[in-house]
Amino acid sequence: MLPAMAIAMIAVAAIVGAGLTRAPVVVRVAGLAVAVLALASVNTATAREHGGFRFADHHVRARAVGERLAASLPANAVIVSGEQSGSMRYYTGRSIVRWDLMDAAAMPEALDVLRLNGQQVWVVLDDWEEEAFRRKFPELAAASIDARPLVESASGVGVRTRAWTTRQPD
Fold first, then answer.
1. Is residue 164 a contact partner of residue 122, using CB atoms and an 8 Å limit?
2. 3-class secondary structure for the chain?
3. Mean per-residue pLDDT, 126-130
4. Which of 78, 103, 118, 170 has the fewest beta carbons closer than 10 A?
5. Which residues pair with 92 in a beta bridge?
6. Mean pLDDT, the chain, as a whole number?
7. Distance between the two ends of the chain, CA-based, in angstroms?
């Protein structure tokens, strides 16, 4: 959207400039400057209102958590994640299971298969994901996200990381 906004600003400036062609040069320059500044002001306010200037703060957490996990997780770790799945794969190099795309009934069996294959399962959730995770996997939530976290990020959006204890196979 940002490139489109710049093109729109140029188009509006051209329209205003064309409309001012009969006015004296001083009025044209002032009118064009006022129009461009008004547009820039409105766009900046809109970007601020929608959090456009806070993206860096939100993404700092992914890097901090990912680097910490890369250094502390064993090589056989598998990360269960939703929002952070791409960044956790990038920073840790570990395999990812998307909890938000996984069928609720299939998750316990998938975790048992991972455990039987000698893999450790970890969960990485943003704080706003925890309630949805609890609703989707009520029996697994207590074992996975109620424990003390390994990593917590305090950069605007909380990220909690915990070892996930799956049930013991029969």
1. yes
2. CHHHHHHHHHHHHHHHHHHCCCCCHHHHHHHHHHHHHHHHHHHHHHHHHCCCCCHHHHHHHHHHHHHHHHHHCCCCEEEEECCCHHHHHHHHCCEEEECCCCCCCCHHHHHHHHHHCCCEEEEEEEHHHHHHHHHHCHHHHHHHCCCCCCEEECCCCCEEEEEECCCCCC
3. 82
4. 170
5. none
6. 80
7. 54
CA distances from 116 to 113, 119, 125, 169 (A): 5, 7, 24, 8
Q: Contact at 8 Å (CB) between 122 and 70?
A: no
Lookup result for tokens 């996930």: 164
Phi, psi of 164 (to 5 degrees): -110, 115
How many Cβ atoms from other residues are within 10 Å of residue 165's Cβ? Answer: 15
**What distance in Å separates the CA atoms of residue 87 and residue 104, rounded to the nearest whole number?**
23
Overall average pLDDT of the 102-112 stretch: 88
Amino acid at 85: S
